[in-house]
Design a protein that fits this description.
Length: about 425
Amino acid sequence: MTTTTVAPPLPEAAMKPSALAQLGRDAAYLLTGLPLAVLSFTLLVTGLSTGVGLLITIIGLPILVLTLELGKVLALVERWRVEQVTGQPVTAAYRPPTQGGGWLRHWWDRLRDTQAWLDALHGMLILPLAAVTWSIAVTWVAGTVGGLTYWIWGRSLPDDDTSTTLSELLDLPWPEWVTQLLIGLAFAATMVPVLRGCTWAQTTFASSLLGNRHVAQLQERIADLTEQRTAAATAEVDSLRRLERDLHDGPQQRLVRLQMDLAAAERRLASDDGAAAAQIVTEARTQTADALAELRALTRGIAPPILADRGLAAALTALAGRSTVPTRVELSLPQRYAVPVETAAYFVASEALTNVAKHSGATAATLRAWAADGRLAVEVVDDGVGGASAAKGHGLAGLADRVAALDGSLGVESPDGGPTTVRAVIPCG
């Protein structure tokens, strides 16, 4: 047995840095910001301008790609800096690379990455802001340190008639070290809010470009839609292959047999053997009836007319009535839903009941369907032997792809010995 120990949460005072530590982080962030901004501005402007200027040749494309990759590295450094000073991670959603294709396709995917261009934009636009915040930070740090320590280093200044102190210039009634001390205290008293404000401005600007939430959501949505499109295509191909296999193994074989029987009947009639011809025709009628029954069974799994005419509730009720395993129906479907949603729900129920009849060894099943919170749920429960799986290579894998194509999910709970629960949840709002 494994025992998991959960560490108690750290006290809030231990999680947040002290005011002095935060002041040191703010100062370090601002003072190192300008050199990094100058470096990123120089490299990115040079690389992008060179790449755009040489786009007329093949050389411009790799230069642009390399410049964007360099922008990613500089953005990674800035994200780390922002996280160190704010304590909040800045995450980015880059475009996933396309599988396959040559180097040209790979480079084109790099150029279509929205976040990569936002990284480059930050590296170029941060320079003016960093120059302002750096100047303010240097002024406040120098004013604080210089004013508070003037009484130490001020003694080494030359004392002659050509120099005028600030106290003398302002005609103040106290010595220069008092004036400098007051200036240092003023800078020290306002240093925390001033540096905090400069840090907030620079980190907010960085987070808006380097960790843009809307871009991340868009990238995630694109990835989800790509997966759904792939799942839909896979489900469609699997359905067509299964239909082709069923037609080949069932009705097609019976029709071939029917053709052979009719040819044999013609020969019997030509030889005046009416009794044998009649027997062959009777067998041919049986073959025709069996072929029609198999065709009807195949069309039920595609789109039964009752689903289009009377809706999902009636179609599921009819489906349960045709099941070879006694099936109880529990429905709560107050309205009609979109055709793809109803078709997918029906297909899930049909395949699940087919698996119950063929593989589960169950004596009873329950078919449930309900709608709540903008989602339609279909569930089939049986008391069979269990062992069902929706993994690739199993019969339920196609159902998972079909449901995923509609942004839904398929869950299978089937421990050894049963019971088995197959549940699909599909957005319908």
